[in-house]
Amino acid sequence: MSQNSPATQPPSLTEVEPYGVERIPDADRSASPLDLFRLAFGGANTFSTCVLGAFPILFGLSFWQGLAATLLGVLAGALILCPMAVFGPVNGTNNAVSSSAHLGVHGRVVGSFLSLLTAVAFFSISVWSSGDALVGGAHRLFGLSRSDLSYVVAYALFAVLVLAVCVYGFRFMLFVNKVAVTSATLLFLLGAVAFAGDFDASYAGIFTASADAATQDLFWPSFIGSALIVLSNPVSFGAFLGDWSRYIPASTPRRRVIGAAFLSQIATLLPFVFGLGTASIIAAKAPEYVDPAAPNFVGGLLAISPSWFFLPVCLLALIGGMATGTTALYGTGLDFSSVFPRLSRVQATVLVGVLSIAFIFVGRFGFDLVQSISTFATMIITCTTPWMVVMMLGFFTRRGWYDPDALQVFNRRQRGGRYWFAHGWNWRGMTAWWVSAVIGVLFTNIPGQFVGPLGDLAGGVDIGLPISLAVSAVLFLSLLWFFPEPRAAYGPEGARLVRTVDVPVPPITGPGSGATEKRPVLATEGP
C-alpha cells in the first residue's frame, strides 16, 4: 500500500481513539519506531527521573561513583526492557493481552494487575514531584503561598490535563510527547548552564579514604542500591511498551523497534545526570535538603537555582508532569477496558484516572505515603521483572509466532484456543512468575523502609531483582522442558530450545465463535 494512501493517514488529534485492546488492523498502523522513542523518552524526561537520579548522592556516593551506578542502572535496565517492544507490532495489541500466550487466557490478568499498580505509583510520583516543583517555582517567582490550597490546585491541574489527553488517546499523547521531548531537553540543557558555575565534579560523598570501617562496609550496598533504583525506571515501562508499539506496522524490522526502545532509555541519562549533578550541588550548598531521613530534592533545587531559572523550573514541572502522567495512565485505562468489557476504553480510562487522582490526594494530605511510594514502586518492579522474563523467553521459544485470534479469547469472553492450556491458565509461566517474584521480595533490602527476611544475606546488598531475574529464567525454561506445552501453541517452524507434546487443543467457543471453530485443533495441524 502506498505510503500516501488515505487508509494509512493518521487520524486527527481531536478524534477520540476508537481502538481498545483488539488487534489493530495493519492499514491503521501509522506509527514508527521514532514515535516509540518519543513516547518512551518523553515519559522519562521529567522531574521524576531527576529525583531518582539524586539517590546516589542521598546514599552517600561521590559524583563519579554515582555516575558509574547511574550508567550501570540505565544500561542494564535498557537491555532488560527493549525486547518488550516487539510484542506490539507482532500482535497489534498491548503486552498484557500478548501475555495470554505464555500465562494462559486467564493468566493474562497478571499483566493487567501489574500495569495498574505501576501506573498508579508512577502517575502519583509524577504528579507529586511536578506539582511540588510548580508551586515552589511559583512561590519564588511570583510569591505564591505554599498553602495546601496551592498544592491541591497544582495536583488537580496536572491530573485533569493528563486525564483529558489519555481520553483522546494515542495520537494526542504522541503529540504531547513530541513537544515534551524537545522542550524538556532544551530546558534541561538550559539548567546545565544555570548550575555550571556551582558544579564540582570532585564532590566526594561519605566513602572517602578517611571514612571509618563501618562506613566503608556500606559502599557496595549503597552502590548496588543506587544502580537498582536507576534500573527500576526503564523496567517500569515493560508493561506499557506494547500500548504504544501496537501502532507500528508488523512489517517494521524488529531490530528498529528494539533499537528505538533501547535508545529511548539511554537518552534518559540527560535527566538522570541532571538530577545527580544538581544533587551533588545541593549536598554541598544546602545539605539539609538531602538528609536521607527527609530528602527534598525539589526544594533543594529551588534553593540553589538562580532567580532566572525559576520560570524554566515551572515549565519543566508542567511539561514533565504531562508526559510522565500520560504514558503511565493511558495504557492502564486501555487494558482495564478488556478486563471489564462493559467499559469502553474512554470509560475505563476515566475510572482509573479518577481512582488514581483520589489516591494522589489521600496519599499527599491524608497519610504519610509520599515517602513510602518509592518502596511501593520498587516492590512492583521486583514483581514485574519476572513477568517480563517469562514474556521474552516465551517469545524466543515460540520464534516470535502468535495466533492473534487466540490472544483475544479473554477479551471476547470466549473459551478454548491454542492458549487455553489448563482451564485458561498456563501453570508453567504462572509458576515461574510468582515463585521468582516471591523470592525477589524475600531478598529485597531497602534500608530504612523494607528489608525482606533474606535481605541481609548479601551483606546488606539488595539482590532481590537480580535473583528474581535468574530464577525466573532458569525455572521457566526448566518447566517448558520437563512439562512440554502443546505443539499447537508454537508456529510452523516448531519450538526453539524446548520440547513440545502433541495434544488436542480445545476449540474456541462462546460469543462470536464461528462454526468452523467448533472442532478441536490438533497439535500436528500447526497454525
TrEMBL record:
> Transport: present as a keyword of the record?
yes
Which residue intervals make up region (Disordered)?
Answer: 508-527
Q: Where in the cell is it found?
A: Membrane
Among Pfam families, the record links this protein to: Transp_cyt_pur
What are the entry keywords? Membrane, Transmembrane, Transmembrane helix, Transport
Give the transmembrane ranges. 39-61, 67-88, 109-129, 149-170, 179-199, 219-241, 262-284, 309-334, 346-367, 373-396, 425-443, 463-483
From the UniProt record, list the coiled-coil ranges.
Answer: none
A Gene Ontology term for the protein's cellular component: plasma membrane
Q: Does the keyword Transmembrane apply?
A: yes
| Membrane topology per record | Multi-pass membrane protein
GO MF, any single term = transmembrane transporter activity
Main localization category: membrane
Task: Tell me the protein family, please.
Answer: Belongs to the purine-cytosine permease (2.A.39) family.
Q: What is this protein called?
A: Cytosine permease
